[in-house]
Specification:
four-stranded antiparallel beta sheet, TIM Barrel, binds iron/sulfur cluster, alpha/beta
């Protein structure tokens, strides 16, 4: 007899995943996406281990909103692999992928001057393997095959500042057709070497530092980074502020360890003129990271902590799903002005943008299309009427970020007046979903392939050969 079980979940759709109990990365298993009590789960069916449930969202209403924000994909200009075994075994980028590389990661070394407990790459002192300039040139050539005008290259590692040619590499990439260049760093060299900071400054606009910044608490830092990094982080930030080098703080969030500090990190970031925002990343299972069970948290949990904090101005309508990868990235943008106490006055603008402007077109927001949005931006940065007229005359257009329409704004409203909060969740063996992975827009760039960041880190055996850590 069929029966009605009152507390059973509601089926939403089907996908495929891997079993994280038997750690089998060779076989995809049937998986349902279900909801129950306003939460969303993967219900995985492994022939060997049976059924497991993995929470992927704590907010079903927001989950539904993510589906609404999904936009038609911007595709790579060329595919580098063929479909042989199907996703995710054919990385990449293969013809099944539904996104281009918004962010291209250039891993230039395996070496690091730290040994963090939460290193997805398991880097540590002594690993070496600095990539040669020739290899880096090949990486750039590969990226340019798939994107003739890349939006953003992030130089990473290991710790990229241990590479003896780091400045030459940054200069070389800065001259390429890339729009923005980022250096992902633990901040040690920035804190200790002012000549290096001057060299970074000389790179000019369109360059940004992506600085590890997980906590303001020494004990938490010891847990995450295996050493107290607080003084280093503060010294690095003081240097970046002194030279006014655009900086994004990057906070890896581990449940029960530093998730309570999310509002505090945002508040702290507002004291710095050079800080353009904070990126929060929930821990993923990769490298040395233990992200099972108790330590895991979802994008929606981080988002809830941000919008529930009364001291920061980002509300429910301001933290929106990013239309190119809505389930995995949430963004909130604000116009920023430093007040007389040198604290950032933030006016969120994302909530004022009609969804259709982000999802239905890739173009320019005109004043007529969204008067309210442009008005908010103008008022926040206290601009005079003449500048407002400049907007009306459609004279000045700026595209501040990939996946974000051009919008008209005054000439002196530049990147200094932008502040953003980003929550970026990656996939691992636990939360893997073969539908979502095709939207991933962060790619590791190899000399001959471009591989989504998550599948790169999962250790999947690709049909086109193993990932290539060329030296
Ligand atoms: S993750 Fe993307 S590139 Fe990799 S196999 Fe799947 S569709 Fe292809
Ligand atoms: S997380 Fe960064 S700083 Fe820490 S060990 Fe890994 S590469 Fe080094």
């Amino acid at each position: 007899m069929p029966y009605y079980a009152e507390d059973y979940d509601l089926y939403l759709t089907a996908t495929q995943s891997f079993c994280h109990k038997c750690n089998n990365l060779h076989r995809l298993i049937d998986t349902h996406i279900v909801t129950k009590n306003n939460e969303v789960f993967l219900r995985k069916f492994c022939p060997k281990c049976g059924e497991t449930m993995v929470k992927i969202s704590t907010d079903y209403e927001y989950y539904k909103r993510c589906n609404d924000y999904l936009k038609k994909p911007d595709l790579p200009e060329k595919h580098l692999t063929k479909v042989l075994k199907g996703c995710p075994f054919d990385c990449g980028v293969c013809p099944q992928h539904q996104n281009h590389a918004c962010l291209a990661l250039f891993n230039i070394t395996d070496e690091c001057n730290m040994k963090c407990n939460i290193c997805y790459y398991a880097a540590e002192p002594g690993l070496g393997n600095h990539r040669s300039m020739e290899t880096i040139e090949q990486m750039l050539a590969t990226l340019l095959e798939t994107e003739s005008e890349p939006d953003l290259i992030q130089v990473t590692g290991g710790e990229p500042t241990t590479h003896p040619e780091i400045v030459e590499i940054l200069r070389y990439l800065k001259k390429s057709p890339v729009r923005h260049l980022m250096l992902n760093t633990n901040g040690i060299k920035i804190a200790k070497d002012e000549e290096f900071v001057k060299a970074l400054k000389s790179l000019g606009g369109g360059f940004e530092v992506y600085l590890q910044f997980d906590s303001l608490n020494s004990d938490v830092l010891k847990d995450l980074r295996a050493r107290d990094m607080l003084d280093i982080r503060l010294s690095a930030l003081a240097m970046l502020e002194k030279y006014n080098i655009s900086t994004t703080l990057v906070t890896v969030v581990k449940k029960g360890i530093n998730d309570h500090e999310i509002p505090e990190v945002i508040k702290f970031s507002r004291k710095y003129r050079c800080v353009r925002g904070v990126v929060f990343q929930p821990v993923q299972e990769a490298g040395r990271i233990n992200a099972r069970d108790d330590f895991r948290l979802t994008l929606s949990e981080i988002r809830q902590r941000i919008i529930e904090d009364e001291d920061n101005p980002f509300n429910d309508e301001d933290m929106i799903p990013l239309p190119c990868d809505p389930h995995k990235i949430s963004v909130g943008y604000a116009a920023k002005m430093m007040d007389e106490k040198l604290y950032a006055n933030l006016m969120p603008v994302t909530g004022k943008l009609p969804k259709e402007l982000l999802t239905d077109q890739k173009g320019t927001i005109t004043f007529e299309q969204d008067r309210e949005f442009v008005k908010t931006v103008v008022e926040t940065v206290s601009l005079d009427t003449a500048m407002g007229e400049g907007i009306l005359k459609d004279k000045i257009k700026q595209k501040l970020f990939c996946c974000w329409p051009n919008f008209l704004c005054p000439a002196d409203m530049g990147y200094e007046n932008v502040y953003r909060i980003v929550i970026m969740e990656f996939s691992d063996i636990v939360n893997f979903d073969s539908i979502n992975i095709k939207r991933e827009c962060n790619f590791m760039i190899e000399p001959n392939r471009t591989i989504p960041f998550s599948t790169y880190n999962m250790g999947i055996e690709f049909s086109h050969g193993k990932k290539n850590a060329a030296s």
